[in-house]
Structures are given as structure tokens and as C-alpha cells.
Amino acid sequence: xxxxxxxxxxxxxxxxxxxxxxxxxxxxxxxxxxxxxxxxxxxxxxxxxxxxxxxxxxxxxxxxxxxxxxxxxxxxxxxxxxxxxxxxxxxxxxxxxxxxxxxxxxxxxxxxxxxxxxxxxxxxxxxxxxxxxxxxxxxxxxxxxxxxxxxxxxxxxxxxxxxxxxxxxxxxxxxxxxxxxxxxxxxxxxxxxxxxxxxxxxxxxxxxxxxxxxxxxxxxxxxxxxxxxxxxxxxxxxxxxxxxxxxxxxxxxxxxxxxxxxxxxxxxxxxxxx
Length: 274
Description:
With 274 residues, this protein is an all-beta fold.
């Protein structure tokens, strides 16, 4: 829980010690593996967290947006792409073993739910005719769509986060609010849990949920961070990150508690707040 991993649009991956504020590339302590995307050539790469040396690479036909390991199947990674939908790749076989695709645009994000038996995706949709494809739940084994019209608003969901209790999934919506869904059938939108004091304004604005699920921290395009109480469904704090007011595009709670938050902004700076 000591280290922070960041990636940038320049294709760089850095491991930081957030308490010493210096890069930890040569630290003696072994770190967990971290995954990164090379946004210039569309290649997904898996890195050794200790040395940052690439251990595995897989080229997708279109740009990749997000990569995550399956929580149960060792060596299997899911990759969200711009034109190929969601694909599952086996690290050992170095090939696509499963595809999840409908007539939607780029995959923005996805989360595994129900212990990895299902996966929820959010994607760009082609106008009103495809609005029901914006958020989909799939059966992981078969690759079949198992949800039905769980999000019908004319906005896109940019980011998804599974709460620690694994009962809810939260999503950052381009309509300037965070929404929530049930993580089990019928995956309904929970309309009473909506947080809307921040602004998205076309950016991919990050947010995160505290380990106890009691708080949500969201960035905003005006350079502020907004803290929401999930139990009382209201904002409890707001603060500015810097004088430049650069959009906050990444937010992460420290996994050990709600006293430390890391944020990254559009200009490439990372801040740690206590």
C-alpha cells in the first residue's frame, strides 16, 4: 500500500513513493505487476513492477483503452478497444480467447462483477438508436450479453468502479454526475444514489471509492476535488488542487483508508492530499 503507479499520454509508466515524493524505479522492495498501455502503437504491455521491464506484449488492431487481469483466471487479461469491443487474451497462448462485441463505439471502461463470472462494460454509442448499448453486462464464459436496457440516457459513461462490498458499480457520466447500478441481476440503476456537484465537460474525469465505501472522491474540470458521502447522498467537502485549475483526470484513494487521496491533472502533475 506504499506505492503509486501512474501512466501518461506520452506512454510512460512510473512507480512513485507518495510519502517521499520521488520515483521508485530502483527500489529494492518487490512491487506487484502493473499493466500499461502504449497509446502510440496500440500495443498492450505487462510490466514487472520491480524493474518496470516489459514481460509480455500483445498488439490489438485498434487502439486499446483499458486492460485488466481477470480476478480468477491466471494469465488472462481483458482489453477494451476502440473498434474490436472487449477482448480476452491469454498471456501464455498470446491470442484472443474470447470476444464481447455489439454495434457500439470505443470501450471506455469495464469492471468484473460477481467474482469474475460477469463483466460490465461502458462504451460510446452511435446516437439514440444504440443508447441501450452504453452499459452492458456480459457472461464471461460465453461472451453473451445478459443485461437488458440498464442505462437509457443520452450520455456516455466514462469510468466504472466496483464498490468494495461488490454490491454496487458506480459510473462517471458525461452529463456531469456519478451514477450507480446494482452489481447483481437485474443490474438496475440506483436513482437515489447520484452525485452531481462536479463538472466533466467532455474530459475523462476520474473518481474513486474509499475502502469502506462511505466516500466517493471525484475530480472536476475546474481543478477541484469533490468528496461525496455515499450514505447521506450529498457532498461533504470540496477543495482546489492547484492555482492553475487544470482538469482533474485521475483520482485514487489510499487502499488502507480514507485519509489520503492521490490526484492527477490534465497537465501531467500528480498530487497527494492528506
